[in-house]
Predict the structure.
Amino acid sequence: MNKRLISYILGWVMLIEGAAMQLSTVVGLMYREWHFMKYFVYVGTGLAVLGALLVIKKPKSNVMYLKDGFAATAMSWLVLSLGGCLPLWISKTIPHFIDALFETISGFTTTGATILVEIEHLPRCMLFWRSFSHFLGGMGVVVFLLAIIPRLGGSQNINLMKAESTGPSVSKSMPKLRNYAALLYGIYGGLTLLECVLLLFGGMNLFDAVTTSFSTAGTGGFMVYNDSMARFSPYLQTVVAVFMMLFGVNFYVYILILSKRFKQAMKNEELWMYVGITLLITGVIAADLFLHRTYGENLFQAIHQSFFYITSVESSTGMAITDVNRWPELSKALVLIATCIGACAGSTGGGFKVSRFMILLKGVRKEFTLILHPRTVQTVKMDSKRVTHEVSRSVSVYFVIYMAIVIVTTILISLNGFDYTTSLSSVLATLNNTGPGMNIVGSTGNYAGFSVFSKIVFCFNMLAGRLELYPFLLIFIPTAWRKN
């Protein structure tokens, strides 16, 4: 394990977080929140000093193996979360440390689960920091490091990208990793800016437009109002719904479009499966809501409510415009299915990922075909390319670990004594980085009533889910810390 290089990376994470906090200081100045803004100055300065001490001496070796990349990424997210919660905790905005840590991890992992009951009572600078944490965590802090630090831009550090990128695999054919990371952030920032402009055009004020755009871009869901997006016009809700869906698309598709490789972009199987699942579930729920007269005889309202919430949960954003607990049972079941499937690999969204879902389905089809025709040669393909045995095996193992975490953490959360739907949906919502579940943790609920132990379990789920399980679980294995 290249511990010196890992420390160097952690130092840069502290420096970046310390600098990022000063945006909240500026917001505090704008709204004259003198008492609260000072905490961002204090904590930001402390992080910058600690970070400078770690980066002042460059590591002798720049070589990073896969386990180094995984450990560096997992530790970066822990440091980011611990540092990010300090302004909320020290200022007594959130008095209890575990609550502040939960809220911050939820922000950086773009989960959007909250323990806050009265969100609107928070100072603007604190509300801004919550939403901005989504933006920082959406594309990934390590990807940002690769984009700005030349020393980390070498091809050997593809392992850093692997550790933080979402989906079953990251291509090794990235000769200019630093340029690739910069391009990702360029697209990410451009889409965020476009959404902000469209929200302003629809009459949303600047603060709301900026924070909403940050939350949508990171597919996080933190809003500055208790009713999330419910108070806004159908135009604004539709803009947000469309962008939630766009941020759930694999960013490599956007790179292909910018490179004018339109045919290749349009042949992306995962993209069409993602769109198909979204439209199919939206249509079924809209019909279910209309037949049950959940919104009277207003078919448009049924479609609008269904499309908004399915794009919200499938992209793992978690914004809401209604109380989903009022929906029929079929609709609620489909919401949980969409929560688990999630967004595309290589997006800012969470969940199991559409690509993994497709590889599993194709693997099942292959096995049945071999049973019927043992002599045939069967291969699993994605985008007309053969999926290697290593990737198929990795997806299968991922599924087993995923289900094991769901089972174990559901049992642990059940110790609270809440109903089974609340326990299971809260686990699925945190592990898939969606935020809202059902019943107590539904679209109008929160996680305030859970015990300290349960909140720690949820923190584990959120970090494990955001880092695609392996990197976060690796740091708990003692042998991983031995020298290479």
